[in-house]
Structures are given as structure tokens and as C-alpha cells.
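If you are new to this repository, start here. Below is one unmodified record pulled from the training split, so you can see the exact layout before writing a loader.
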Amino acid sequence: MNKLEFQFKGARFVAEDEGKGPALIFLHGFLENRGMWSDLKKNLPRSFRKISLDLPGHGDSENLGYFHSMEEMAEVVMALIRRLSLRKVVLCGHSMGGYVALAFAEKYPDHLRALILMNSNSRSDSEAKKLHRDRAIALVKQNPQSYIKTAIPMLFSEGNRSSLKEVIAQVRREAQKTSPQGVVAALEGMKIRLDREAILAFAPYPVLMIAAKQDPVLDFEMIREQFEHPGVEPLLLDQGHMSHFEEPEELKQGITRFLKQLKTKSPQ
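And here is the target side for that same chain:
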């Protein structure tokens, strides 16, 4: 595994790169970092080159400004692609990482081979959700560690909050590495993101959309409506928002099936 650094708009970004073959780029969710993908990457086909990136203000990557729009985060992904001289890639985004992947799909459609949206949503925030994010921003500014301590367990299904206590504690420790400015910037960026459901309707490449029935963050019925687009392949899971911890085997099998269906012969 190779750790690499690159610059974008004067800020330093960090990624990991391993293997050979068609490029599969992993984009983590809010309060996460590239380390969230470690176990999943080990269990996906070795025929793919696996690249994981720390998005702005998360992990080892620096902040770009007061808020990080999904479009600006997508530009960071493109900077990584150029740094590695790639042509077409598969993007796999968890939650916020899915929002970034959709912004990338809109901005750089010719660079996509396929899209994997994991516990994510193509629609913009409702007014109620925007107010929720405003309250979260206020809490972060007051006490970022307290906000993170409270927020992380609520990502897991209710039934797993006791059985996965050690996992939740580890996720919380990783989340607390996120700078307060990075937390606020991401919340501000998610709040103003655009509706990109049209991408699901007209994408000229395969889309795998993963949803969990007990997701406490996303309304399952709303996500299921987005499965109706002709280019979308659904993967239904049973547990919460953190499928990589709550249902790792089912997640691995579903993504592996999808990747094996892709044509892998075009140049990188």
C-alpha cells in the first residue's frame, strides 16, 4: 500500500493506493476517513486498483475554507485522478462520500466507469434537514467533542448500539480526529448540496445503490423510490447507516457481484 500526498488550492491531501487494474476510488462519509474502508478493501476483488482518499477537513487532509461544497470536494477527487494519471474510475461513496461522487458525476461524467452509492441519497436536503444541520453546526461550535460523542452511535441501527459498543467506540475515536472546522465545513456543504436524482435517471454507466432498512439517518422509503430509475441496481440490507460495520459480509458480496459485472478491459 502506498501513501501519497498532493496539493489542491494550497491545501495538503492524503490518499492510499494499492493494487493494479481498473481504478476503484473510495470516498468516506461525514466524520470518517480513509481508514473506514480497510476491511472492505481487503475483501473485494484483487483485480481492481483500490484508492482511498481523505476528503477535506477529514483524516490527514487539510481544510479548504469555511465550508466545503460537494462540488469542491469533487474537484479534490479530480485532482487525485490527475495526480495518478487515471482516465475512467469507479467511485464508491459512503453517505457524504456519495454526495461527493454525485457532484463528480455531474462535473466530470466522462471520467466515470461506474458509481456505487452506499447509504447515500441523490436528493437535496429538505428544509427540516437543513434546520437539523444548522443546529448541529451550533453544537459543534460550542463543543465539538460532545457533538461527535453523541452523533456517532446514532448512525447505527438501534439494535446494534449495544452489541457493537466496541466498534462504536473505535468509530468515535476516529471521528474525534476530524478538526472542528472540518466538521462545520462538511455540514455547511451538505446543507447546500443540489438535487442530483437526474443522474440516476440518465447515467450512461452502471449505478449500484445500497440502502439499509433500519438506517436511522436516511428514510428507507425515500431511497427505495430512487431505485426505480432504470440504470440503478439496488442492494437492500437490513441494518443501519454503517453497513461496513453492521453487515460487512452482505456488503462485500453485493459490491463484489457488481464489480464483476463491469467491463474491465478499457484503458485507465
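Two things worth knowing about this chain: Residues 122 and 198 are 8 Å apart (CA to CA). The beta strands are 2-8, 11-18, 23-27, 49-53, 89-94, 112-118, 207-212, 232-237.
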